[in-house]
Design goal:
- The chain has 48 residues and is mainly alpha-helical.
- Helix content is 52%, strand content 0%.
- It has 1 helix and no strands.
- The longest helix is centred in the C-terminal third of the chain and has 25 residues.
- Pfam families: DUF7550 (PF24418).
- InterPro entries: DUF7550.
- Keywords: Membrane, Transmembrane, Transmembrane helix.
């Protein structure tokens, strides 16, 4: 096994799926999703 003694404690690391998120992040994600749907489906349907 490789010697990784120079790396920080792996138990102290936090990766994205482990991080908590609040209602603000949920609202931003919902707004981005809605904007994407509008641009991808609604706008082309209106222009056709």
């Amino acid at each position: 096994m490789a010697d990784h003694s120079h790396e920080p404690d792996p138990d102290a690391r936090v990766t994205a799926p482990m991080q908590e998120f609040g209602s603000r992040e949920v609202a931003i994600g919902a707004a981005v999703t809605l904007l994407g749907i509008l641009l991808a489906y609604v706008l082309p349907a209106l222009l056709a």
